[in-house]
Amino acid sequence: MKVSAHALQILAEIQDLVLANRRLEHDAKALASGGELERARESLLNNSQELSAKRSALEEIQRDIARLEQDLALVEKRAATDRERLLKTAVSRDVAGLQHELETLDKRRNELEEVELNLLERRDELSNQLSELEALNEELEASLARTKLDVQGRLAELKNVHAEQTNQLKSQRNLVPEDLLQLFDQKLARGVAIGKLQKNSCGACNMSITATSLAALHAVPSDELATCPDCTAILIR
Q1: Residue 75 phi/psi, 5° resolution?
Q2: Strand, coil or helix: what is 201?
Q3: 194: in domain
Q4: What is the pTM for the complete model shown?
Q5: Can you give the three-state secondary structure of 18-56, one letter per residue?
Q6: pLDDT tens digits, 92-133
Q7: Which of 19, 135, 226, 231 has the smallest number of Cβ neighbours within 10 A?
Q8: Both 91 and 193 in a single domain?
């Protein structure tokens, strides 16, 4: 097949554009699959779940504190009643009974106050953690929104570059004879279609060419098509 150096150079440019478009398509597919978005969503989801768990724990502690305060109020009410009865009785047996009950109530009050103190400390700790998680949630929501916009922008940019290169491809293909273009397309469908002969190696497959094959290649007229003996790619000599 007759070929010109100019046509071979155009084929090399076409191949570069095709391979570049394939990379763009791969990058666009990776972006569209939502890898970055999925990671951003997962971070937000994990934080939201932890936030929900902390809120539930805080609500439970607040209920426990409310119950303890009710118990403390009952203890205080009972103790006040017993103190009032103690002031009004002179019967030693009743006095001893009321004093014993007041001691028991006082011990119960101390126990309840200690438990309540621990719960109040835990409540404050959870409140601080909630504030941090809520702030982080806002940051993650903003990050997710930014990631969405970034992905959309990058996809649009890839689409524009792909369209521009596709137009270049159409223009370049019109400059190559049809029979040479068909052969090139067949080879490109299987892999790299064209490469430069670099001393004794093929620029398409990077394989070294034997001295015998190299001599045969040099014997091919400059205006005739030459191919790599290993990968059959078109060679630019």
Answers
A1: -65, -45
A2: strand
A3: yes
A4: 0.64
A5: HHHHHHHHHHHHHHHCCHHHHHHHHHHHHHHHHHHHHHH
A6: 898 999 999 999 999 999 999 999 999 999 999 999 999 999
A7: 135
A8: no
